[in-house]
Amino acid sequence: MPNPLSLEGVMLHLPETPHRPPTPHPDTLRFITLLHRTFDARRRALLQLRDTHPPGELLLETQHIREHNTWTCTDSPPITTTGNSSHVIRLQGLDNASAPTWHTVMHTHAQWADEKGNSCSAPSTLVPRALHTHEQHMTVDGAPVSAALFDFALHFHATHPPRATPHYCIQGLVHHGEARLWHDVLCVAEDVARVPRGSLRVALCLDTPAALWQCEEMLFELRQHCAVVLLPREVPGDTARAQRLHAVRAVCARRCVRVLQFSRELPRDAAPTPAPPPQRENKRAPRPALLQHAGRL
């Protein structure tokens, strides 16, 4: 097995352009490679489990977690908000439904990294792409890297050390084992950064039917990092959904984690009402630590 930090076997599949496209810093590539070689086989195995537990029922094998009344989510500083409301989170991320170009990926991450030095704006919460998606422009040992791990690694490495507690919104989970995977990814990042356990905080987005039924198990796995749970809005006339959302709110109250609502209609780079005022386009040069000219790895 290759050295997890070695760039041997790492390839960037970049578009042909008149100018050399930007690439991540070699240290960032090593961090992405470390996460890929550590977690990709486990990620693929978890994706194969997605159809084994249909949503709409509680899992018997995790009954002991739900019945254990002593654990709660770790206390954390409040999530950074925008506007005058304490119930607003700025979410930023790449669309799962699209296949973004390399320029879009790097430009977007450069903007996120640029927030680190901008003391006038509240840090946003990064929404990595879902676990089942891939970053088509990068392969490690012949396999495409997870877009979720790519987004997380690029953002984390470019914004460290942060000026505020980093927050990430974990979305698209279907099995509680996927929440455990994210917990372990966060722990590796904290170890690399040499910061205490729980320094990285997440918002758990329950945006799949299975997540609503495995909420308590997912909170248990992320209890050292979870700061807030994002719930979908109720659908008028859907009594079963309303009952399940009520049960999830009770779970969150018992496990001492805050609950906010999200709307699928909102673009991910916008905040729920009240929306922040529009900002001018940032035309500053990309951070040299994030964007480098392409060259030999």
From TrEMBL:
GO terms for cellular component: peroxisomal matrix. Residues 128-228 form the Malate synthase TIM barrel domain. GO terms for molecular function: malate synthase activity. Its EC number is 2.3.3.9. Residues 267-297 are annotated as: Disordered. One of its GO terms (biological process) is glyoxylate cycle. It is an enzyme of class 2 (transferase). Belongs to the malate synthase family. This is malate synthase. It comes from Maudiozyma humilis (Sour dough yeast).
